[in-house]
Amino acid sequence: MMPSQVTPLRGLRVSSHFIPSFNLIPNTSLKIYPLIIYHECFSPSISAAAIEAHLKSVGVVEPQWRYTMYSTTHFHSTTHEVLCIASGRARLCFGGEDNPGRAETEVKIGDVIIIPAGVGHRLLQDLDGGFEMVGSYPKGEDWDMCYGREDEKANVEAIKDLAWFDKDPIYGDEGPVLQVVHSGA
After folding, report:
1. Which CATH number belongs to the domain containing residue 101 in this structure?
2. Does residue 48 form part of some domain?
């Protein structure tokens, strides 16, 4: 049973994006996993502490920081990332700002972003001031920082070996993260 501060699955609006590789940013080209956004997943009155408590109760990811998003395009090669918006609104870019196949989107408090390893991401604009996220990673995984440089090719190659989630980080035994695997899309 999910707490009332989480939108029931049947009412959750989800968007997903497959983003082609661009320059040395692999994006979603290496695996079948899209960038996934759970819109208005948490109540707009949610606090960062309540988000962290929920994530810990589900037990799939470990909350590791509270911060905004870096304004330089970067990606992680060692783990997937779960970002829960805890305050404010922002415009974000996924895939590299010059990539014709990029995804630019506005997110706000209560949204959750599942970023597969290799997907470039950056902050374009903090729309209200005070944009903050809870950053989480699958239990036992350490994140790295990659920027699409030549010397990162071995890091990028390692993404192919990363396993996907076996439970949804927000909903547990059900959820959009698992539907990606089951549908094979």
Report:
1. 2.60.120
2. yes
Q: Which tokens in the block code for residue 26?
A: 């692999």
pTM for the model stands at 0.94
Residue 33 domain flag: yes
Condensed to tens digits (0 to 9), the pLDDT of residues 122-169 reads 999 999 999 999 999 999 999 999 999 999 999 999 999 999 999 999
pLDDT of 33-75, one tens digit each? 999 999 999 999 999 999 999 999 999 999 999 999 999 999 9
Tally the domains of the chain: 1
